[in-house]
Structures are given as C-alpha cells and as structure tokens.
Amino acid sequence: MSSIYEFQVNGADHKPYDLSQHKGHPLLIYNVASKCGYTKGGYETATALYNKYKDQGFTVLAFPCNQFMSQEPGTEEEVKEFACTRFSAEFPILEKVHVNGGDEHPLYKYLKHAKKGVLGTTAIKWNFTSFLVDGEGKAVERFSPGTKASEIEKKLIPLLSASAPAGEGAVLKSTEESK
Known about the structure:
Blueprint: E1 9-10, E2 16-17, E3 27-32, H1 39-53, E4 59-64, H2 76-87, H3 106-114, E5 130-133, E6 139-143, H4 149-163
Parallel strand pairs: 3-4
Antiparallel strand pairs: 1-2, 3-5, 5-6
C-alpha cells in the first residue's frame, strides 16, 4: 500500500468512511481513549489544531482504541458524545480499532511501518499516539502521546502551505507567531 487512501475504514456509525475525501490535505490520525491520563491534553491538542486549520482543509481523524488498560470501554457513539460534549470536538470520530497485535487495523499497520517509533519500533505504546499524513496520503511524522500542538504545527504548517491552492496566499501562523 502506498497511501492511506487505499484502506477501508468505518465511521462511528459503522458505515464506510471514505478517506479519499481528504486527498490534497494533511490529516492527523490519533488513537484515542476517554479514560487515559492523556485524554484531556490529547483532545485539547486535536481540537485546537482542527479549529485553527480546518478552513485550510486540515482534519483530525480519531480512532477509539481499548487496547491500553481498557481505557476506552465505550461504544463509538459514547466516545463521540464524550469528545463532542467535553472537548467540543468537531472532527470525525471513527470506528473503534485495534492498533497493535493480530487484530490491528490495516491502516494502523501501514502507518506504524511508514513511521516507526523510538528505536525503530513499530508498536504503538499508548493512547494518543498520532500520525501526520500529507496531502498525498503518506505518513510523514509520528508523534508520541503528550506532544504539544506547537510541536505538531512545526510539521503541519509546511504541509498546509504545500496543499494551499496557487495564488490563494494562505496565511499560516504557528501558535508561537500568533501570540
């Protein structure tokens, strides 16, 4: 597989969610959990980045995962309700997946091999590991849980500039520049 667009994923409603609708724009793909020490910071980072850059085509895709100490026990609808109510998340919450092991989702297998973790490992170590994907559907960066929005922006802004239509003159500012 050469891009995320070749994979089948489902939305929280268990119906197919077409990843190709995001062609030409960067994405941040997270494995999320509602009962994790990283929940507050992870959702706040995802929501802040999404709200700041959604008008430029950027999207966050959240995949609930219950593989880490059963910290995401709810259904997809419960996860969606939690994220939308508690963190004002407006980005897509997708179907619950496994990110490691024999039942891992093929999308995560691709992402993990495209961007390995510390010391070349492929396993996802915890909730809120994220992958930055460029407009061509290729994973370009892997972020560990707890990564701040400003760190993700350093890699995101060049991708947004590359995906901006010619002549539109998209004004992109990092969190630090806008303070």
